[in-house]
Design goal:
single chain; 436 residues; mainly alpha; two-stranded antiparallel sheet; 1% strand; globular
Length: 436
Amino acid sequence: MSIAAAAWVTAFGLGLLASFREPYYALLAYLLDYYQHPPLRWWGVDLPALSWTQIAAGALLLAFLVRRRNLFGREILGHPQTRWLLAFLAVAALVTPFAVSLGRSVHYLGDLAKLTLLYGLIIGTVRTRRQFHGFLMVMILGAAVWGIASYFDPIRQDGRLIRVGGPDSFNDNSAAAHLLPTLPLLALGVWSGGWWRRIICIVAAPFIVNTIMLCNSRGATIAVAVSFLAATVLARGRLRLAAIGMVIAGIVLGAALADRRFLARQMTTLDYEEDGSAMGRIESWKGALRLIGEHPFGVGGGGFDVLSPIYIPAVVEAHGGEERAAHNTYLWVGSDWGILGLLCFTLFIGSTLLELHRIRGGTRDRRVYLESLALEIGLIGFLVAAFFINRPYAQILYWLPALTASLRNQQLAEQAVPAPEVLPAPARLPLPSPSA
């Protein structure tokens, strides 16, 4: 067994064992599997072919229940995004029996149910500031490991990085979208973290930015630009100047890492009418809109793919008759789960953004303000990238709202702690005068 495989399985096993004392460690084991999923790594052949993700998720659920924590408590269900996520799941369950492909729809319904459960477990498990910061740092470290591998051993095809990412993001576009929310987290760590967090973020930043650029995703580049704009608009006071400084530093770093292949592909964004891939996306969007107009209640999970030869025949023919996707998260949700499903999905996202605003508006704690700002900028970046790819079942889309709820819970818990009572000073008797 290689050293890498032995180290991974040791860390994974320790996380599972420690979870019976604190479920948070099972969550860390789950994240370890996500960022270093054995079947996707060269050293994974040294380990048995087990469902590591399900093992970690099962341990997390078991440890959570053993600790007598309630999945139906107010700390989870009391958030507006939780209720809209449950409504979205309910709509998917109602549409599935009428799907054009029952098997596929059941599969996607199962994925959505698992993500909903994971969302609740994250909220119920990440209960303290230390745990919250630990989750964020694992995201940064995991992204940095991807970045280091991409720097020293990049595998590129047609000028784009391949074989990078996690179990649900193992391709260029999806991996780039997953990495986008780590950019404001890096800025957060540099701006407000301790010395060790600052060092980690400074070292990790070039590798993460380089990986995003090697993925050479035009949608991700647009998302980065929108994230930079959001950072300067949402920040207030002197923090806005710091945000502008971070943006300038990011632009300088990106310019230093850009190569000719990156620049050549990004320039096609301006001449999209001459790019077959871009025009194919536009045709797919038009087809999805036609499907939604004809089937407003949805055609079930994966239904657009099944019906793609009808709604986008030219795109399907250009790809050898293969089924094609909508290449747009929101249109895919609308075509598969209907207008009502799209409404619930949109409100799940919108209520998360509003809750982040409420967190900032209700705190005088500088750290909480910065953390909510970083989460919001990261979520905005992902949502923009998701406009160009299919990511309704991306794990990070559920991690960020769950972390938002966790941050809100911590804020409410701190506000509920009564201020220490200050007792009046004991009365002092007047001292006798010297002449008395």
